[in-house]
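Q: Got a minute? One more chain.
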Amino acid sequence: MTGFSQGLQQHAQQQQQAIAVLEKLAQRLQVPPTDGADGEMTAAAMSGVIATAHQQVQHIGNTLRQGNFRIVVLGDMKRGKSTVLNALLGEPLLPSDVNPCTALLTVIRYGETPQVTLHYHDERPPKNLDFATFKREYTIPPETARQLVEKDEAAFPDISHAVVAYPLPWLEAGIELVDTPGLNDTEARNQQVLSYLNEAQAVLFVLSATQPMTLDERRYLQNYLAHRGLTVFFLINGFDRIRAGLVNPEDGVAVAEAEDKIRATFRSALADVLPAAAYPQRVFETSALEALRQRISGIPLESTHFAPFLNALQQFLVEERGQASLARAVMLTQQAQRSVAASVARQVPLMDDSLAEIEAKVASVQRDFERLEGICDQYRQLIRTSCDRTATDLSNDFKTYLISLSDSFEQDFTDAQPNLEFLEFLQR
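A: Always. Here it is, folded:
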């Protein structure tokens, strides 16, 4: 990943240059212009606009200064999310055995000393753990996880999330990986995942080759990811298991047919959220467990079957998302600049007016604003009345229909009634 790290470093330099410009602009916006006593109202109005612009520029600079590339890993239970992350990291940092499920939202970032830190919902200070304790005490069996989902309960309700720190070179470049529990976790956990998605640059959606696109996965994709504007990489994990599930795994024709069938299923399921032209750049067939074994044996990730996915992710992080983050910073800064310029343009004609003259102009239009507010209130009441009347009419109509159903059943459900003559024929 040498080239990857170099690309991130180059992007970091560009970010620092942009941050320096934003800091100078924020300094200029710190001191609002002032006028004499007659221009106090004008100065106050401009001061408010400039203060807002100053806050916006500071937020843009702080966002760039953090310089993190956050990648959120999503997927249903037992899809191999933790194994995918371990393969990317080249270390078995996260629990990824056959049985346990990840029970905590886990953030992986760079740290000089390997450790796990638990963060609580209340005011308790964070707690440091070693990896063995974390894996042993904070994973749960799939059966327990499903029972908790049904009860809408969290496995460890007092814990907000865990942070895994590890001295891996490409994490040092500012990349954060977020390992999430299953899609059907508690509502509170879903909201926490969504908050991380708001600050994410990419999503890895881990799917199963042997359970292609379940209903829960389709719903999550449509409800939480389809309209968020995030770049989503789909990993069809366990693709090697397709061959193992055949009666004759050595039958090349049968293997090809089974794999093509799975590919067609995913193409159809993802058609609504992923253009056909983008499919080869965003969907990858993987075997995370095999890649992890190779990494542990000392084989570079670039030499495993993860290479196509890794290349696409690196290109996105260095070229696409990096430039997009800078472009967004420029756009937001220009919006703040236009807001200040428009305020100045509105206020300049009032600079020569005294405070009494400005108050007189405001008073002259006050009655019009009050009349508009009255009209607005009337429309609100009209909408409420119309909604209530429509809801009542629908309720009464449905109630009447149910009461008279015994009289109108034959007429209403003629098409659904069975052919009685055919049933008599079968009986004979």
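A: The chain has a mean pLDDT of 78.
Q: Perfect, thanks.
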